[in-house]
Amino acid sequence: MSVDMKTFTVLLAAFHYLAFGFGIWSVFERGRSFKNLVKHPQEKSFIESLLRYDNLWGICGFLILTTGLIKAFGDIEKPVAFYMKNGLFHAKLGMVFVILAIEVYVMIKLLKLRVERKKNPQFSFSDSEFRTMSLLNKIEAHLFVIVPFFAAMVARGIGLHL
Question: What pLDDT digit, counting tens, does each position of 1-24 carry?
Fold first, then answer.
C-alpha cells in the first residue's frame, strides 16, 4: 500500500470515527430536545435546539454512511468478500437500515416543521407528535450504540463464513 493510500485510509477511518462520536452525541441531544418539547411543545428555544442538533446529526449521518460505504465496498483495506461473507456484517447492515427507516420518518416530520415555521413562526407539533418522535429517536439511539460492537467484531473476522 502506498503512502498516499495509507494516508487516505487513516483519514477515512478518522472521519468515520469522529462522525460517529459527534453523531451519537447529536442523537442524544436531539432526544433531550424531543423530551423537552413533549412537556413544552411551543417553547421556541427547545425547537431551535432540536433543529440545530438535527442538522448536526444529518451531517454526521451523511459522513458515517459515506465513509462506511467506502470502507466496506471500496476494496481498500479488506476485500468486499470479507464483509459479504460475514453474517454479523449483514446484521449490522440490518440495524443501519432500521436506523435509516426511522430517520426518514423523523426527517420528513422535521422538514415539515421547518417549512411550516417559515410560514408561521408560532407553528409547532403537538406533544403527542413530539412523543412519537422522541420514542423513535430512543430506538434509533439504542441501535446506534449497538452498531459499533458489531463493527468491531466484523473487523476482527468474527462471524466470517469462508
Answer: 676 999 999 999 999 999 999 999
Contacts of 143 (CB under 8 A, 6+ apart): 95, 98, 99
What does the buried/exposed string (b/e) look like for 78-99 if buried means 16 or more CB atoms within 10 Å of the residue's CB?
eeeebbeebebbebbbeebeeb
Residue in this structure with the C-alpha cell 423523523, named with its chain if needed: 106
User: In angstroms, what CA-CA distances link 16 with 40, 71, 100?
Assistant: 35, 9, 17
User: Distance (Å, rounded) from C-alpha 62 to C-alpha 116?
Assistant: 25
In this prediction, what percent of the chain has a pLDDT beyond 70? 99
Written as one string, the DSSP assignment of 73-89 is HS-SSS-HHHHHTBHHH
DSSP of 103-143: HHHHHHHHHHHHHHHHH-TT----HHHHHHHHHHHHHHHHH
For residues 86 and 159, what is the distance between their CA atoms, to the nearest angstrom? Answer: 5
pTM of the model: 0.92
Tens of pLDDT, residues 13-53: 999 999 999 999 999 999 999 999 999 999 999 999 999 99
The pLDDT mean for the chain works out to 96
